[in-house]
Amino acid sequence: MGLLTPDPGLVIWTFFTFLLVLFILKKYAWKPILHAVKVREETIQFSLEAAAKAKKEVEKLEQTKTEMINEAKAERDVLIKEAREIKQGILEEAKSKAQEEANKILENARVLIEREKNEAVQDLKSKVAALSVDIAGKLLEQELETTDKQKAIIDSALKEVNFN
Amino acid sequence: MRQILQVFLFSLVLSVCQYTLAEDSSNKHEKEFDPLEMISHHISDSHDWHIISYTNKADEHVNISMPLPVILLHNGKLHFFMSSEFEHGNAIVQKGDAYFKLYHNKIYLTNANGDLEFDAENHPKNEHPFDLSITRNVGSMWLSVILILFLFISAAKKYKGEPQTPKGLQSIIEPLVLFVRDDIALSQIDKHKIDKFLPYLLTVFFFIWINNLIGLIPIFPGGSNLTGNISVTMLLALITLFITNVNGNKGYWKHIFWMPGIPVPIRAFLAIIEFIGIFTKPFALMIRLMANITAGHIIILSLFSLIFVLKSVVIAPVSILMGLMMFMLELLVAALQAYIFTLLSALFIGMAVQEDEH
Amino acid sequence: MESLSLTSIGLGLIIIGVGIGIGRTAGSAMEAMGRQPEISSKIQTAMIIAAALIEGVALFAIVVAMMKG
């Protein structure tokens, strides 16, 4: 069979041609192409990884931001609460102080009044005493013509007078 | 590189310019059309590159073809001449004291009269000189090589500098290269061992594919049957055999000669089978490619021969339609056979270099 | 002539065998792809390898037949 008999000449030519093509292509085609493709793939891989990393970073930042906002909100609430409490306290204190003051004033007033009253009573007493003496003097001027009578009047008068 | 290419192209153009209008006025006018002869002439190698033949007004058979250089080694002497000296087998060429005659595309040693002795099966018994001629297949191979080198080197030049998106030629070449790398090589060979074998796999893939395609072009300068020639496929298979066994590691040889985990008598039996297997695998590669491509050529040529065998124009549309279908199929086969050859080469290499799992 | 016809019969038998073999391979591969479309590329590669190996045996037989005939 002619079809199945290898032709040595063609085998030799194919051998040299194929090896030549293999070496030329290896050096001038496959090496640059494969290298460039590898570099590109690595670049893409790297970029993707960097993008993923950046995304993660952004997410983290976002989370931090939210956390910070929440914290700030909580703090604000606490502050407001505290302020309210303080206000309440101040008001309460002011009220109680005012009450106290008022009480004090009242007390003072009462004491003063008492004192005034006592003084007035004292005054009145002394005045009454003086008046009494006056009256007594006048009475005496009139009545003290007789000693007996005088005595009887003084006694009755003294009996009637009741201090307090 | 460009200069080398230019020299190649220039020499090719020069040799094309040497057309000889070899007018062999055959006396047999109404020569009976013989499809077998036509087909066998097409699928086998030849010493001239047939362009066109027709019968002119003077009823002469005109055969235009490009003569190719013949290089013969006989008795330690190199003979170099153009194939036009054979006058398509009609003339005997004398070089020194040796006479050469071309008979059915083979060169035989004859006596001065050019007599051939035939055996019972009508094959000449004369001796062959050692034939190193630039035949049609060699010429076609060089043409494809120029095409391959041009395509890939010009594509590779665009890869200089910063990584960027592929443009133009790159966008055709790159997916193919990546296909060979990822779907053929990476699927069969360990990832870190791939770099060593990738240039061979890529080269063999594109060499076979482009030669298959050139073989499908029916007119000059295509029409050769390079990848359907057993010499070429044998050489490619031998290279795969060589690469596989040179790179085969300890595990590979152990699995061939002393398969682990199997009873000893069967081991010895398996060793014989596996040893034969080393050679049958590339043998199948060789036969597969050759048979597929040759079969495709034969089918297409037979379909077109129908017109001339039946001597009817009516059959022509049928022939052309079926021929067209076959051409479409052959386009697929051209790529498929390149793929299969490369895939199986990668598979054999991958089996030879894989790390032992036991 | 007789040897030629025997060769032809042999070739026919080879083709029947290979046709059944590759047909079954392809059919099973299609079924597998239908079941698991996500690994169809792997199945396809395995199918092509299997078909190529069957074809290799067939081509071997064809060569022997043609050499004998």
Give a verbal description of the structure.
The complex is a heterotrimer of chains A (164), B (358) and C (69). Chain A has a domain of 108 residues. Helix content of chain A is 91%, strand content 0%. Chain A contains two helices and no strands. Chain B is of the alpha+beta class and 358 residues long. Chain B folds into two domains: 65 residues, no CATH class; 217 residues, no CATH class. Chain B has a three-stranded antiparallel beta sheet, with no helix packed on it. In chain B, strands 5-6-7 form a three-stranded antiparallel beta sheet, with no helix packed on it. In chain B, strand 5 and strand 6 form a beta hairpin. Chain B starts with a helix and ends in a 5-residue tail after the last helix. About 5% of the residues of chain B have low confidence. Chain C is mostly helical. In chain C, helix 1 packs antiparallel against helix 2. Chain C is elongated and about 50 Å long. Chain C has one domain: F1F0 ATP synthase subunit C (F1FO ATP Synthase, Up-down Bundle), CATH 1.20.20.10. At the A-B interface, helix 1 of A face strand 8, helix 3, helix 4, helix 5 and helix 6 of B.
The ordered H/E elements of chain B are HHEEEEEEEEHHHHHHH
Beta percentage of chain A is under 5%
Given the structure, what is the number of helices of chain B? 9
Q: Count the strands of chain B?
A: 8
How would you describe this structure in keywords?
heterotrimer, B: 358 residues, alpha+beta, three-stranded antiparallel beta sheet, 8 strands, 12% strand, C: 69 residues, mainly alpha, F1FO ATP Synthase, 91% helix, 0% strand
